[in-house]
From TrEMBL:
Name of protein: M56 family metallopeptidase
Alphabetized PANTHER family for the sequence: POSSIBLE SENSOR-TRANSDUCER PROTEIN BLAR (PTHR34978), SLR0241 PROTEIN (PTHR34978:SF3)
Matches recorded under Pfam families: Peptidase_M56 (PF05569)
Membrane spanning residue stretches: 6-25, 37-58, 91-112
Domain of life, source organism: Bacteria
Claim: Chloroplast is one of the keywords in the record: no
Residue span(s) of domain Peptidase M56: 150-260
InterPro entries the record matches: Beta-lactam_resp_regulator, Peptidase_M56
Keywords assigned by UniProt, alphabetized: Membrane, Transmembrane, Transmembrane helix
Amino acid sequence: MEAALLYLLKANVVLALFAAAYYGLLRRLTFFGLNRVYLLVALVFAAVYPALPVPALLPAVALPALPITVLGATGAGSETAHLEASPFLNWQLLVLGTYALGAGLLLLRLLGQLLSLAWVRRHTQPVVVLGQPVRRLAGEGGPFSFGSDIYLSDSTLADTQHLAAALRHEQAHVRQGHTLDVLVAQIATALAWLNPAAWLLRRAVLDNLEYLADHAALQTGLDRRAYQYSLLHQQPGGVPAPALAFHFSFLTLKNRITMLNQPASTPGQLGRYLLAAPLVIALALGYTGTYAQAPATIVLDGPPAKGPIPIYYIDGKRIEPLTTAPLAGLNPDDIRSINVLKGEQAQQFDPVASKRGLIFITTRAGAATPEVIAFNNRVDSIAPIYTSEPAEVNAIAPKGLAYITKNYPSARVIAVTKYTRVSNSGVQYRVQLAEGKRPFYVFLTPQGDFLTEERH
């Protein structure tokens, strides 16, 4: 879940960077082909780069510490540390659910638009106009194109004075394959719907494609003034899914006429691309590499420990002197259990460890090896080792639920974690409760008997 949120964060940040660079440096340039490449790279790169392993371009920043909860094994004072279980309902799940719901609705809307266009195509008649195969659409409305099809309404066909200009504009859309850009922009907007930069980039893609088609139409020999005059006489609308079709629109008409009269950008202005795209990509890769290389740290719940550094064992091997290398190479998802001994318990295991404490880390890969099993049995004889996994509320026996209801009538259940003892597979349940804003824990046997209560 955290990985999905981090992916979304990175993708949306880079979309914002690309949008800022485009609107700040490139929007008014007449290098429409380069702008098309830039915008497509922006949308594709934002979707791909968070998942790529990249080197850090900036100093690594430590990730948040991985919390470990100290569990009282039987209420007798022994203490064992475990990875903290995430609550079933939390803000991360809520954010992801909301985000996915919005993306799903927009993707369904896109599917509906595609189906609408398919319906329109079925109800059109193929004809040839000025040597170009088109599809005749009954009624009024402006010309538009999608895929390899050009759609001309009866009103457009009747306007013979401006028909050639409209047809050449739509031919440019089809010839240059602009539908692909539109679909990429629509999908990107749906997947990043919460980010205003995604909508700005979508608008930029659609506008730039119109500029490209206008420029290509003029290259066929049309008079610039007459072409602009034809734009003013085109009718908007007439398309069930206008967001997916190229058509004349009053919303973009002003910008299109402005760009038609914009002086051609000079070769010296190409340097803006050398500033915009590499800068954005470097910032994105640096941001990703910073977090990709940052090792997760493992600490105990509560304030930072003071005093001597504890002695670490990883899969039964003592790490002494302690360096960051063994811990930096550990992925929290690969850890099966963590056990902590201190005071008299640490002294029982190692006489010189009474003041330093001991931390035993067992990985999932090493847990089944004979050497690690024998080592953990030795540790377990001093303080029980438990593994943890999330559990449903219905895993608690009715007796346990009755105990909670009776003794904590104003508390609500936040999460349930099942702890299994490594040596004998003994099970106990930790129930996370909350009264007000402060959580606390109640430990129960599988039969629902009360073991202990833990408050921080």
